[in-house]
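New here. Invent one.

***
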Amino acid sequence: MKLQLFKYSVNPLLAVCLLVLLLLSNCNFTSSHSFPLNEPITTGMEGRTLPSFNLLSTNGVAFNSNDIPLGKPVILLFIRPDCPFCEAQIDEIIDNIELLINFRIYLVTSYPLEELKVIYKKRDLKKYNNITAASDPENFFRRYFSVKSVPYTVIYDEQKKLSRVYVGFIGVSEILQL
């Protein structure tokens, strides 16, 4: 028996197998990955100090990236508030927060602060002392790193020197490879 799919005839068993493979290949958004999901990209800025740019926290307080203290690694996660992959990345961080307690984590967006506040409240981020959500009203981050897609994760070492950059979802195991 053959199924008529557009102008092609397809074996039903083959169609089911392909559908199952397709679904399984997209089910990689679980916590605590034991295998690398994504490789870091090369930006040409590795080893450079975190540049100075202005941010606006969810409570309306303006601060500069220079205000981020030395001594702990820094994760800058550039997100879009309506992006399901970004939400999965935030969940990965929250689900493994005990492993990231020595990191300063900044959720950054160029979207309006009100949209970021929705995620902040939905994920109850105020209870995590090492997570700050902020808007980048000047769109500096996106321009500086030439961000084309999100989530976009930038990891700096404890001296605020660029260590690695990832495009797309990454597991905590990738973050911990400092």
